[in-house]
Automatic annotation (TrEMBL):
It is an enzyme of class 3 (hydrolase). InterPro entries: GH, GH13_cat_dom, Glyco_hydro_b, Ig-like_fold, Ig_E-set, Secre_tail. Gene3D superfamilies: 2.60.40.4070, Glycosidases, Golgi alpha-mannosidase II, Immunoglobulins. Residues 429-790 form the Glycosyl hydrolase family 13 catalytic domain. The lineage of its organism: unclassified sequences, metagenomes, ecological metagenomes. Keywords: Hydrolase. Its EC number is 3.1.3.1. This is Alkaline phosphatase. GO terms for molecular function: alkaline phosphatase activity.
């Protein structure tokens, strides 16, 4: 992943004018820290996010607290300053000596806009309702907590103190006006009823002297009592557990007078020291529930804590293990290496895939060992074994073996082996939110046939798991995961995703799922409990809480106020996961197994794989993940966002006992493609990178090669050309490696769209794709030919192997990739030697027509019979669809003419060969249903975007059942200077889904904003006119 910083292009439109014409509130913000910063600022939407005198905070020398008072418009800024601003609220952050941070006491932050804190502005405005759910507020250790809130009235009004009301759970406290300090604007109140331990709901209500009202709600946790076990209830696979406790006085303060206490469990008790009122010890666990209490004598009375349970989990599941040995023409399949942890008797059940090239006849057999005849038909054969013990605990193991056409010995799959579909993989990177206007999983299903026809056999889907807010086309694209076991609701349902995977499988397409082993979102329940309870929670161990010096790829290592580490450039929204913890590791492995076993996904793309790899190594993550997943599904692709080429990178690959099948070729992208200069020097650099400078990680180690992805800019934008990208595409599709294409790349989406950097960058790489973009006619046929040629001709997908049997893959083995001399530095050519069907690619990187002559009689052409000048061969022009039969001597002067940035792809074969190009079905642009009443307001992204000269804008008004009362709806368009250029809607409208066409024929190219107002609903989005 890449770090993202929103660049705000709209200033505060008429802010001073609007403040003068409407109610405003003077709101004071406070910031307290244990550090000693020199400068603290309050940047936000109310001051243009500036770091200067207009946002500088002042420190109280007595308390050390920083503060600043800001005058804010009631109902928030108008119009909204940014597309993802919060209607009715102002966004802000603190900046302490250059470090940006959320307001630690404000539980509200905008996940769709850099996790900015925000505050709703009403009359009166309620700020800092405490205690609350933030880690800064923490656990309340007294049953009589102080409830406080700042209540700021609008100018020319005051707080109606008689209206003040606090509700805790179901208990209301009224007549508390004397607890409000009108000078400090602070309400401070202690409830008269003691609160039990647990989570409590807190609500405050206030009215102004003018009759307007406001309320706010939060939750907080109480853990009171004189003797407390502070450790949280936990479940663990570990054999011992740390227990922490404390002794308190009646005021909820630590009691330092007690020096000894006792921990009890039903079967044992332990005398423990009490140091400064605290207990900290580690005790062994027995199987199952471990109920502990802490007991201490206080003033002659024995006080006992509430009971704490630590559940010690023990593995009771047997392990299935298939062993395959060959005895001549017979294969022996044995379950003898299966085992049960309690040594119980096992029963067996064998199975096989019905899609195997031949049926083995083992399905339903129950013997520990069975024998079958060696199949005759070449291909991959998948077999499975289920074992069950007498307690009905069960496990399954699946594996495969390979029968070759010309090899008597079958190859049994090992830890490192790849399935055939991976070896000939062509990856289509799919972002659901960009793929169709609807942006859902279900809307993508009708287009799977298009992906198949394009020639791709693997779909990599960006994350589909639950995140805060909705997936959008900017920065919230799925990597801030808060529930790894749910499908993100804005994308669809589990049923939708299962249908997507099943439909892909029916078409012969594999699906790999993007997931985040490096981090969870800070709003994940584990992270929230860890932040709130720190090392008292089992989940504290699930996160990185100590500094681990390592290469952070320039992102920097930062730590939250609670002590959890993260990569600075990712922000504290993404907290580093700890793979060295047994419980954390087992949990995440179970997550990965869930999507494989329940949904049939065919592998993963591991986001920021390099992070946990560098922090913990392959022993803690890569190896156990691969071992567990391959146990249940051996035909997987495990792709890691990790450098995968060059000496030292081999340790991440399964060939060298790492966890991955494939990793990134960053060197090729940055030094061979992104920097390509369309000259002979660049051609030489490109070949060096494609050849890995002669370095080969292993037979099963693949390097991902691409021109663009969800993190990088569109290649047509970088080169401002469709044509220039074509020979580059030919090079990576025809060269060794695992090739990948981003959705929309095949139409050249992105060329000429906006300025460099965000937010235009996100519009290009993640925006809703215009499938009729101007590069379609040129690029779509090109990419289909490349993908289909690679799919149908093994010469172009082959991978260098250990052909001399010395255990290494190096220059001593048979070559699979040779550069050919074209006599012209700007025309690049290489040969992919393959028996009887040799691949040849020639690319012109010039803006002029070129003609080259190559001597093919002295190159590494491979045939069953040796190459002969007098033998006949076929020259198959796969790219243009023609074939010519020639003598070997004719290949001494093989002449090729190439147009500007043209490509030629051949096989030199013993038979005539042609590529089959299926008809491309059109993209089905699934829209949202127009006949269903929506449940909420929504302003959709215009389509197409960019547009010329017209585009469609859709919006939804919710049904009356959703609480909406009919009011006037306005939809207006503004230019970059906030000047109104069009009014599209200005009328009363009933609930429903609407669409309107905006024609910009009379406007110049550039960025425009459309703004909707309907009752209290406000929303703004940007669009690009590109003429």
């Amino acid at each position: 992943m890449k770090p993202y910083i929103i660049i705000f292009l709209i200033g505060i439109f008429l802010s001073q004018f609007l403040l003068a014409q409407s109610d405003s509130v003077d709101v004071t913000f406070y910031y307290s820290t244990d550090d000693f910063p020199t400068n603290v600022y309050l940047p936000g939407e109310f001051n243009g996010w500036s770091l200067n005198s207009s946002s500088a905070m002042t420190q109280d020398p007595a308390t050390g607290i920083w503060s600043r008072t800001v005058r804010l418009r009631v109902s928030g800024p108008f119009p909204l300053p940014a597309p993802n601003s919060i209607p009715g609220a102002y966004q802000y952050k603190f900046n302490s000596d250059g470090s940006w941070m959320q307001d630690p006491l404000n539980p509200r932050y905008n996940v769709n806009d850099n996790n900015n804190s925000y505050l709703y502005i009403k009359n009166p405005t309620i700020n800092y309702l405490l205690p609350n759910s933030t880690p800064a507020s923490g656990i309340i250790r007294t049953r009589f907590p102080e409830i406080s809130a700042y209540i700021f009235p609008a100018k020319n009004s005051s707080v109606d103190t008689s209206s003040l009301k606090i509700t805790i759970d179901e208990i209301e406290y009224t007549s508390i006006g004397r607890s409000y300090d009108s000078e400090k604007k602070l309400l401070s109140f202690i409830p008269t009823n003691p609160l039990p331990n647990g989570v409590h709901k807190l609500n405050i209500f206030a009215m102004s002297s003018t009759g307007s009202s406001n309320s706010d709600s939060t939750t907080f946790t109480v853990q009171g009592g004189l003797v407390q076990l502070l450790t949280m209830p936990s479940e663990t696979w570990k054999t011992s557990w740390r227990l922490q406790g404390a002794i308190f006085d009646n005021n909820g303060e630590i009691d330092t007078t007690i020096s000894v206490a006792q921990i009890n469990r039903a079967d044992s008790s332990w005398i423990v020291e009490v140091n400064n009122g605290l207990v900290d010890t580690t005790l062994y666990l027995h199987e199952g529930n471990n109920f502990f209490t802490l007991e201490a004598e206080i003033n002659g009375v024995s006080e006992v804590s509430d009971s704490l349970n630590i559940l010690h989990k023990i593995n009771k599941t047997p392990t299935a293990k298939v062993s395959i040995t060959q005895l001549g023409e017979t294969l022996s399949l044995s379950a003898s290496q299966s085992a049960d942890p309690d040594s119980q008797q096992l029963s067996y059940l064998w199975g096989e895939d019905p899609s195997n090239p031949e049926l083995l006849g083992i399905t339903g057999q129950t013997a520990e060992e069975i024998q079958v005849s060696k199949p005759v038909t070449a291909g991959e054969y998948y077999v499975s074994l289920s074992v069950t013990d007498t307690d009905l605990n069960a496990d399954s193991n699946r594996t495969f073996f390979v029968v070759d056409d010309d090899n008597f010995i079958v190859k049994v799959a090992e830890y490192e082996d790849n399935p055939e579909w991976l070896k000939n993989g062509r990856i289509y990177l799919l972002f659901f939110k960009a793929f169709t206007p609807a942006g859902t999983i279900k809307a993508a299903i009708p287009n799977l046939e298009y992906i198949k026809a394009m020639g791709f056999n693997i779909i990599w889907v960006l994350p589909i798991t639950e995140i805060p807010g909705d997936v959008d086309n900017q920065i919230n694209i799925g990597y801030n995961i808060i529930d790894f076991l749910k499908v993100e609701s804005s994308l669809g349902t589990k049923e939708d995703y299962k249908e997507f995977v099943d439909t892909a499988h029916d078409l012969g397409i594999k699906v790999i799922q993007d997931i985040t082993p490096n981090h969870t979102g800070k709003e994940h329940p584990f992270a929230k409990e860890a932040a709130l309870n720190r090392d008292l929670s089992q989940y504290w161990n699930y996160y990185q809480t100590v500094s681990i010096p390592h290469n952070t790829n320039g992102l920097g290592e930062c730590v939250t106020p609670e002590g959890i580490y993260y990569y600075c450039a990712f922000s504290d929204a993404l907290l580093n996961y700890n793979w060295s913890d047994l419980d954390g590791r087992n949990y995440m492995i179970d997550v990965y197994k869930y999507w494989v076993s329940q949904f049939g996904v065919d592998g993963y793309r591991f986001d920021v794989y390099w992070g946990p790899h560098r922090r913990y190594g392959e022993d803690d993550m890569g190896i156990p993940v691969r071992t567990s997943l391959k146990h249940i599904k051996p035909d997987l692709l495990l792709l890691g966002e990790q450098e995968g080429t060059g000496p030292g990178t081999e340790v991440v690959y399964a060939d060298q006992d790492g966890g991955l099948d494939a990793a990134y070729d960053w060197s090729l992208y940055w030094n061979g493609i992104r920097s390509f200069g369309f000259n002979s020097t660049s051609v030489n650099a490109l070949h060096s990178k494609l050849a890995n400078a002669g370095y080969y990680p292993g037979e099963n180690a693949y390097y991902l090669r691409y021109l663009e992805n969800q993190d990088e800019d569109r290649i047509t934008y970088i080169f401002n050309s469709f044509e220039k990208t074509m020979p580059l595409a030919t090079s990576i599709f025809m060269a060794p490696g695992l090739v990948q294409m981003l959705n929309g790349q095949e139409v050249g989406f992105g060329k000429g769209m906006g300025a460099s950097g965000e937010p235009d960058l996100n519009d290009r790489r993640r925006g809703i794709i215009d499938w009729n973009f101007s590069g379609k006619e040129l690029l779509t046929p090109h990419y289909q030919k490349l993908a289909q040629i690679r799919a149908q001709f093994t010469a172009f997908s082959q991978h260098r192997m250990d052909t001399n049997g010395d255990g290494n893959v190096d220059s001593q083995d048979k070559s699979d990739f040779d550069r050919l001399d074209t006599g012209n530095g700007i025309v690049y050519s290489f040969l992919r030697p393959y028996k009887d069907s040799n691949g040849l690619a020639i690319m012109n990187f010039s803006n002029e027509d070129q003609s080259v002559t190559i001597d093919l009689t002295n190159v590494n052409l491979e045939f069953s019979d040796d190459f002969s000048l007098t033998s006949s061969y076929w020259v198959n022009d796969l790219y243009n669809g023609s074939s010519t039969q020639v003598l070997g001597s004719d290949l001494a002067a093989f002449t090729v003419s190439l147009g500007t940035y043209g490509s030629a792809i051949y096989t030199i074969s013993t038979q005539e060969e042609m590529v089959y190009l299926p008809t491309l079905p059109p993209i089905v642009k699934v829209e949202k249903e127009l006949n269903s009443l929506p449940n909420s307001f929504e302003l959709s992204q215009n389509y197409p975007n960019p547009f010329n000269p017209s585009t469609t804008i859709k919006y939804s008004i919710p049904s009356a059942a959703s609480g909406f009362s009919l009011s006037n709806v306005t939809l207006k368009v503004y230019d970059i200077l906030s000047r109104e250029v069009a009014t599209l809607v200005n009328e009363q409208q009933s609930p429903g889904n609407y669409e309107v066409t905006f024609n910009a024929s009379n406007l110049t190219s550039g960025m425009y904003f459309y703004y909707i107002k309907a009752g209290e609903f406000r929303s703004v989005k940007k669009m690009i006119l590109l003429k």
